[in-house]
Design goal:
- Helices cover about 0% and strands about 50% of the residues.
- With about 120 residues, the protein is mostly beta strands.
- It starts with a strand and ends with a strand.
Length: about 120
């Protein structure tokens, strides 16, 4: 179900940057992630962050396609997770979704309970 609120999507030129935000996750959240889905393609995981019991980050994982360009981070005071996207290319064009869960999760989207509505990112 949709419970998280995403923002920050838009259109940029190749080589540009965007920062996505996703607000509203529970204080009991242990795993946060960003997924994306391009037209005609399956949804894929792009970034993943694990938290400790106090919700501080202790590990991040990135897909090979975005590693070195994207950074996932969180601000627990605002209950917001971010995705900083640099050096954007046309292949990054997709609808981006944030996800959260109160259990440790892998890359399987089926493991995540809470989702945002999706925000469009277009790179030209």
């Amino acid at each position: 179900h949709v419970q998280l609120v995403e923002s920050g999507g838009g259109s940029v030129q190749a080589g540009g940057s965007l920062r996505l935000a996703c607000a509203g996750y529970s204080d009991r959240t242990l795993t946060l992630a960003w997924f994306r889905q391009a037209p005609g393609k399956e949804r894929e995981g792009v970034a993943h962050i694990d938290t400790s019991d106090d919700m501080s980050a202790y590990g991040t994982i990135y897909s090979d396609s975005v590693k070195g360009r994207f950074t996932i981070s969180q601000d627990n005071a605002k209950n917001t997770v971010y995705l900083q996207m640099n050096s954007l290319q046309s292949e990054d064009t997709a609808v981006y979704y944030c996800a959260a869960d109160q259990q440790p999760c892998g890359w399987n989207e089926g493991e995540f309970t809470y989702w945002g509505q999706g925000t469009q990112v277009t790179v030209s």
